Amino acid sequence: MTPQSKPSIEAEPIRATWPALMRGWRRRCPSCGTGPLLRGYLKVRDTCPVCREPLHHHRADDGPAYLTILIVGHLMAPLLLFVFETWRPEPLTLFTIFGLGCLGLTLYLLPRLKGAVVAFQWARFMHGFGEARSDL
Fold this sequence. Notes:
transmembrane; 2 strands; DUF983; two-stranded antiparallel sheet; mainly alpha; single chain; elongated; 49% helix
């Protein structure tokens, strides 16, 4: 078999996962780190306005919501038990404080985790992120 007849395997450039995850956590484009990743609260932009990286390939779906529930539940449930067993506050006070705490933590984490999930998919060439860009 001659070298010309071998199938051509293009080596995809390596994308660093951790820097991409940090950019996604900050809700920035995983490619350039300067353009906004989200339009609104949770809507991912089709392309980065700075580097024109296509972002419409993402398949975040329910992943960020599951991760948010996992993190908020694992932080707030033991804290709730500790506060209840230690100080025995009134039920309405306990509900108000922890209800607002869960709501605030959820609203904070959800867009950041969505950005991190999209950035992870971009860094690992998942769901079409490895295709050649047509504008280059």
